[in-house]
Target: Poly [ADP-ribose] polymerase
Amino acid sequence: MEYSPIQVRNTNEITHGFKDFTSQHTPEHSLHNPSNYQSTHSRHSHDQESAVSDSESFSSGVSYDQFQSFNDGMTRLFEGDRVHDLIKQRLVSGLGLLGKKATVVAIHRNTYSGALQQARVQSFQITAKAMEKKCGGDANLKFGWYGGTRDEICEIMKHGFSARMIDSSCRLFGSGIYLSPDNSPVECVKKLNVGKDGLRHMMLCRVILGKAEAVHPGSDQYHPSSDEFDSGMDNLSSPKKYIVWSAHMNTHILPEYVISFRAPSNLKAYFRTPESTRTPTSPWMPFPSLISALSKFLPPTTTKLIIKYYRDHRAKKISRQELIQQVRKIIGDKLLISVIKSFRTKMLVTSSNLEQKQWFKKEPVLE
Model:
């Protein structure tokens, strides 16, 4: 059975760096026809695969024969394929310093070969069309990264996302599936576990966001706050997380590629924020006092989240700089600087009054 591609105008991934392979392999501004893709793209990948020597090895030390491929619904792409090379370049550049140490071992593409898989594509296309109508012609399609173990990714490819995957998330921004924007894979990579073969795995998915709303840290949200919205973001102007609510996780997310790569086991050194950007320019303030002051402005759930990070720092689970970075991310620099400046002003006034009292005590009394 074949499904006709649905025209989707203004696909945002085109302006985010994937124009080359979206325009090459699909009609412009449209989702591809899975059946046509399977007949043409699988044959191309098969020809490439046949040309690879059995003795060829990757720079990571994993040969083609040794690499445990994914299930039958996946087709492997190789160096020289424009899609492969563009995804690899996008991942490596998005990882910053870590990108120089990371080695992409394999990239697989979902062929949607089974009847159920094609039904998922059809559902995604129908949803995209409906969202386009709802949002005035723009379904707000993006590409997003999602990470997991090999078994988890195979499960998603076969059965879709499950409630267990929501429960295993940190739920910092509510209950849903979190994806990282295509230009920011770092947030996704940070949470990946290394497999027995030394590899990490991520999916590159198409995501229907519709009209997104800002979700604040510590939120217990699990659906759109109103009919006006369809998804969530941690920051509308510069998002690091896309939040797809549980009710939409298997209609608004379409896994398309699996990227397997090797990277250093300890990633903390590569994700440290430069000194010039991680230290607030405002005066210093003790964290217990800061938490007490912030509790007057923040909801209890957000205050509890800050307390949790502070306890993690006290228990030496995270560094002081990591604690500062998390607090800045949760509340923003504007409120943080305002509270610290207010504290500093009170301290100066108190110090001045104390000095005056001490001066009068020390000054000899004239008789």
User: Anything to note?
Assistant: The longest helix spans residues 333-362. The two ends are 109 Å apart (CA to CA). Residues 91 and 185 are 7 Å apart (CA to CA).
